[in-house]
Amino acid sequence: MKLDNSLPTQATDADARLRQRATDAAVKFEAQFIRQMLSQMRSATRELADDDSPSKQRTHEQMADFADGLVADSLAGQRAFGIADLLLKQLLPAPDLSAAPPQSPSRN
Fold it and tell me: How far, in Å, CA of 14 to CA of 8, rounded?
């Protein structure tokens, strides 16, 4: 008699795919958050700059926005702000806790 062990493997694969998709989404959210923060900081700098300042030129603005996006993606990939980790902690159960059965408190 041959036992089919594919069901636990499929569940593990599905769980791994779910975790990967959640991780990707959380990192993208962190990148968007950082990008928005950098955009607001740069906008404030532009408002404070003189009218003839290079930071007020449209070409400079576009390049700076592009650079901000790259910095945001890099920081989010490193999880520098920890936003992705906090989201994942809220969304996904801890792997070791889901496998262990709940323990009842001992009585003395």
Answer: 10
E strand intervals along the chain: none
Is the per-residue pLDDT at 37 higher than 70? yes
CA-nearest of 31, 39, 16, 42 to 79 is 31
Chain position carrying tokens 């806790």 = 97
Reported as a single tens digit per residue, the pLDDT across 53-81 is: 776 677 778 888 899 999 999 999 999 99
The 10s digit of each residue's pLDDT in 83-100 is: 999 999 998 877 654 454
pTM of the model: 0.68
The amino acid at residue 88 is L
* Lookup: tokens for 80: 């520098």
Helix/strand/coil for 60 = helix
Q: Could you tell me the CA-to-CA distances from 20 to 4, 5, 56, 83, 92 in Å, in that order?
A: 26, 23, 41, 16, 11
The one-letter code for the residue type at 48 is L
Q: What is the spatial distance between Cα 108 and Cα 101, in angstroms, rounded to a whole number?
A: 21
